[in-house]
Amino acid sequence: MFDKVELSVSSYDTAWVAMVPCPNSPPAPFFPQCVNWLLDNQLRDGSWGLPNRDPFLVKDALLSTLACILPLKQWGVGEEQVNKGLFFIESNIAAATDEKQVSPIGFDIIFPAMIEYAKNLDLHIPMGATNIDALFQKRELELRRGYGSNLEGKRTYLAYVSEGLGKSQDWEMVLKYQRKNGSLFNSPSTTAAAFTHLQNSGCLSYLHSLLDKFGDAVPTVYPLDIYTRLCMVDSLERLGIDRHFRKEIKSVLDETYRYWLQGEEDIFLDTATCAMAFRILRVNGYDVSSDPFTRLSEDHFSSYLGGYVQDIRSSNTGNEDLLKLAVEDFNICQSIHRKELKYLARWVIESRLDKLKFARQKLAYCYFSGAATLFSPELSDARISWAKNGVLTTVVDDFFDIGGSEEELVNLIQLVEKWDVNVSTDCCSEKVEIIFSALHSTICEIGDKAFTWQGRNVISHIIDIWLNLLKSMLKEAEWLRDKSVPSMDEYMTNGYVSFALGPIVLPALYFAGPKISEEIVGTPEIHYLYELMSSCGRLLNDIRSFKRESEEGKLNAVSLCIIHGGGVFTEEEAIKELKSIIGSKRRELLKLVLQEKGSVVPRACKDFFWKMIKVLHLFYMKDDGFTSNEMINAVNAVIEEPIVLNEM
């Protein structure tokens, strides 16, 4: 499917090619094979166009049907097909003025023009005078409609719908839109109309090339290879099965990148293709500049044609085989996820974490946050590390908030600092003993697995991550105890650590695939990625939990913004300000993730930070989704409910 882009044929465009007269003998068609195709491809209801069409696409069927009737009448063939087509038009003409119907580009100009052309052929279109008047009035309005400052957009649009203007069109002006392949906008219908009026050799060459490739009929747009292949890449990435097509995707993106550097018109003359190429190349690490967008005028982007090819679906991009593969892949991954979740449930009990009644039981949420983003089978170790540390950070957070005394909090930190201790004598309480034992065994287990992946001991690094978290949580507990009011900078410097994403994300990097040395782990780049991700999470959490924490007497970013705002900030203004900061940090994080030049952190590792950001926005979309039970349906959909294709 990557190698051979399959485009479905268009009866409308084929009809316009069929109307082209032979220059030397005007009563004969230049492309009789297209006429024959029209005779053989009328639908049972008398129309031409899409079979099994949507009820809101009747205008498209009317346009195609009238277009197909015209060449049959013009060349004096297919009387039966003509009569059936006229009956379809008569039966459905009300749709032509129905505002609820989806209107094909240029319908209001082209459809009335074809009615006029039919009159010239002595072909009576069975529709009332009221309908005809309404259509022609709408045509005049469309032709006279002001486009503001966007004159180029209007010229481009009118050039694209040239078949609806006939002799009134400035055809020499239209030729300025001719592409290297001889076409106008890669559109067979527009090009056929231009050749009929101009006898341009480039147009003829393009039409011949179409029929050499497609046989007796033509598609709506050709070539569409770059756009269609990019659509396939986009579909595979959105379906989550792109990992099975890495070689093919790289080939497409390498080719697109080459075209981008060469300034290929098939990319830069269509804004939809240009935008998609830019986004997909950037996301996949290609160094592409946004300069082409600044060079394009505002008029170009607001052109009436902007993105018209988005309506043209290749038979490849919506292919049912891809959907079947995606569903099968999802269900295979889900079966693995269910087994992992059962294992984790046993681990919670074996670690006695269920005995800690003060702690929220959020295993399903912790595992979901990993499984929904790190879903492929080979990332099992990363998911397990992510989920176990997620459960432990939730327990520790509740321990520092409500479950532990000051003595117990300090004792837990001292135990982690010493590490090799006698839990039966060094722990001041059963709660501390349960938490430290779970921490110790989990960190050692993750360290052992990481040694297999990385070939070096990383346990001391994981201990340091946990110590940083515990000390930041202790500081928050001290602020609450002493009723201290930290500055916003003090709060955020501590708060992004206490948000507790460090133990979840950072150890999981060891299981992302690439080898990451101690030097890479210690770089400012990784720390900045972590800081940006965690700061977004802290602010998202604080916005959603502000009312609850205020009632509990706790300070957070919202209340501090109000306190330090000197009476300027209301609650709504403070939240607006923090949302702006989140947006800025999110953009900076994405920039770092996509950056190739000067980056020492492997892309597979950087992706973990971005995936966590997406999880955070999901959890805090409406409220504090982690603390409440709002997310349970999403959790079940990902982990417990297989997809059945026929239900889709």
Number of domains: 3
Radius of gyration: 32 Å
Strand content range: under 5%
Any idea what the CATH superfamily of the largest domain is called? Farnesyl Diphosphate Synthase
By DSSP, the count of extended strands is 0
Under the CATH scheme, the architecture of the largest domain is Orthogonal Bundle
Helix-and-strand structural type: mainly alpha
Could you please say which CATH topology of the largest domain applies here?
Farnesyl Diphosphate Synthase
Distance between the termini: 23 Å
Query: How many individual helices?
Result: 31
Q: Average pLDDT value?
A: 90
Quaternary status: single chain
Keywords: Lyase, Magnesium, Metal-binding
Organism: Fagus sylvatica (Beechnut)
Cofactor: Mg(2+)
Domain Terpene synthase metal-binding: 352-587
What report would you give on this structure?
- 63% of the residues lie in helices and 0% in strands.
- The chain is mainly α and 648 residues long.
- It folds into 3 domains: 9-211, Glycosyltransferase, CATH 1.50.10.160; 224-318, Terpene synthase, N-terminal domain (Glycosyltransferase, Alpha/alpha barrel); 329-647, Farnesyl Diphosphate Synthase.
- Helix 3 packs parallel to helix 5 (107-120) and helix 11 (225-239) crosses helix 12.
- The two termini are 23 Å apart.
- Keywords: Lyase, Magnesium, Metal-binding.
- Its cofactor is Mg(2+).
- One of its GO terms (molecular function) is ent-kaurene synthase activity.
- Pfam families: Terpene_synth (PF01397), Terpene_synth_C (PF03936).
